[in-house]
Every structure is written in structure tokens, then in C-alpha cells.
Design goal:
Number of helices: 3
Distance between the termini: 50 Å
Helix content: 40-55%
Structural class: mainly alpha
Order of helices and strands: HEEEHH
Shape: elongated
Strand order of the largest sheet: 1-2-3
Strand content: 5-15%
Radius of gyration: 19 Å
Largest sheet: 3 strands, antiparallel
Number of strands: 3
Length: about 130
Amino acid sequence: MGFIALGNEPWWTLKGTTSDQIVNIGISPFYVLLDGIGLPSTVPFASLTGTLTRVLLVSATVLLGLSALWPRAWWRKLAVWLSLSSLTEVYLSFTLLMNSTRTAIINTYGANPPMLGTDTLPGSILGL
């Protein structure tokens, strides 16, 4: 769990097929980064959710480490419950951030990005 909390790589990415300058999106349970024309830079509550997720993961890791040193400690059941709930919160946070990002993409571009693979977003690029 400590490795998950320390990781900064996105779990889900969406890039333009010809150029990553048009659309570049990265989502993990800790942050959302949206780079696209007409898209906001992030989704609401992404930083709060990411901070809460990291605090839960770090505290669960510390409590599990301490309960390994003292197996009959009173906080052992609390540590197990906190570790299971923090892992559940990681995936819930990722799902909520990914869903809000997909909603932002649909509202802006009118296209639903794929869960896996590549797809082109319909539209026209105006330039000089």
C-alpha cells in the first residue's frame, strides 16, 4: 500500500492520436490532469480526494507495520479494517475521478472515450 501511495503515475491516460498537444488526460486515485481545448484543468474535489486517499494509505501502512511488531496489540483489528477500507477508497476514488473526467469530455467534445485502446475524437481544428 505504501508503493501505491508514493506513486505519481496515472492509472488511466487519454492522448490525441496524432499529437498529445490537443488532448492529454491523466487520472489516478490521487489527481486528475486535463489538458485539452475547452476542458477545465481538473475536476472538483480531486485534490481533497487525493489527499484523503494518501493519508488513509499511509496510516494503514504504519498501523499494519506496528501490528506486525506487536501481534496482540489492541489496534490490530483497527489496522486490518483501516487497510481494507483504504484499498476500497483507492478504487472508489479512481472510479469517481474517472467518471467525472469522462463526463467533462462528453460535455465538451460530445464523445465517449474508450476504456481500452485508441479512438479518435470527432471535431475540427481551426488554425491559421
